[in-house]
Amino acid sequence: MTPLDRRTLNRTTLSRQLLLGRTSTTPHEVVRHLVGLQAQDPEPPYVGLWSRVADFTMDGLTGLLHDRAVVRATMFRGTQHLVAADDYRWLRPTLQPLLTRWQRGAFGRSTAGLDLDELTAATRELLVGGAVSRPELARALGERWPGRDPVELARSAQGLLPILHPPPDGVWGRRGPTPFVLAEQWLGGPVADVPDAERMVLRYLAAFGPASVRDVQAWSGMTRLRSVVEGLRPRLVVRRDEDGRELFDLPDAPVADPDTPAPVRFMALLDNVLVGYDDRSRLVADHQRVHLMVHPPVTVDGFVRGLWRIERDKGTGTALLEVRLFAPLSPAEEDAVTGEGLRLLRFAAPDATGHDLHLRPLDP
Predict the structure, then answer these.
(1) Strands 237-240 and 163-164: what pairing?
(2) Residue 264 region, left (φ>0) first, then alpha (ψ -120 to 50), else beta?
């Protein structure tokens, strides 16, 4: 089988990620297809869907949050994600080994010597009456275990039992105390009893493949997935990249033509397509990776070419989109970035008195 070069992997990934052309599929189905959206802040999931869904509006996601069709929780890599509610039920137990490791790594000092079963039971008891804000939960746990960091006790609970953060948490522009609620109460039933790592790997490959075992682990935050993938090998296609790495894929999943045009896309901060691989060279150059942890990127011809941010002029009410470039663009590329950027501004800042866009080199 011919090795897959970087450009073929790029176009295949963009196709699987619905980034070669906006889809008419519903936002809910897109969230399911992508196995969730990175959601450390409220705004990135909205941008991620706007980049993929035709005629997407903010109500398209806000409504899903209020309807409990999608939920916000600590998930992959121990970070906040929006996932479809039906996926959460089986993903949460599947990710428990990661979340146990995350709890120990992030809050192990604060819980050292504590009976974690007792902490879990106490948290459940405090939440059984309904949603409680993180500060309220922290105060109650701090009173029970004086001398411990109460905030870390409360945050630790996210790794110990299924907890969701219901709206208004996760809604565009919302800032404030994070609400905690038991998943079983918000969803009207318990999460699954057993993990399903095979299902997780297959869903990942549908949206991110072809990919290596290390890629699946980087995306999920899980370890020891080699045995899971090996168990699936008879059901998968095995390809290789130009460096000889094994890339696993679904047998009916198409590989894209490397010459397929790729439109300009303004990506969400920490969009999983940017961080969901161990080897990110199909989209991102090594020297760019450090920037993507704090700034969302713009892609041109399928690859990261710059970073973007929106600022509001408090005096005039104008919204400015600043694009900082890793390297100069051609005149045609500049026109494409400007056109897509102004569309983003009209989506993200519809109430602005004006919209402006500046292109400039990235500071050394």
Answers:
(1) unpaired
(2) beta
Q: Terminal CA-to-CA distance of the chain, rounded, Å?
A: 42
Sequence-distant (6+) residues with CB within 8 A of 96 are 195
DSSP 8-state symbol, 68: T
Token pair belonging to 66: 């209020």
**Could you tell me which of 9, 24, 17, 28 has the C-alpha nearest to residue 268?**
17
DSSP helix/strand/coil, 361: strand
| 4, 241 contact by CB (below 8 A) | yes
Secondary structure class of 287 (helix, strand, coil): helix
- What's 23's DSSP letter? B
CB atoms within 10 A of CB 191: 17
Do residues 80 and 40 make contact, with C-beta atoms less than 8 angstroms apart? Answer: yes
pTM as predicted: 0.96
pLDDT, tens digit, 9 for 90 and up, residues 75-117: 999 999 999 999 999 999 999 999 999 999 999 999 999 999 9
- Token look-up 């907890």 returns 163
Q: Which residues pair with 49 in a beta bridge?
A: none
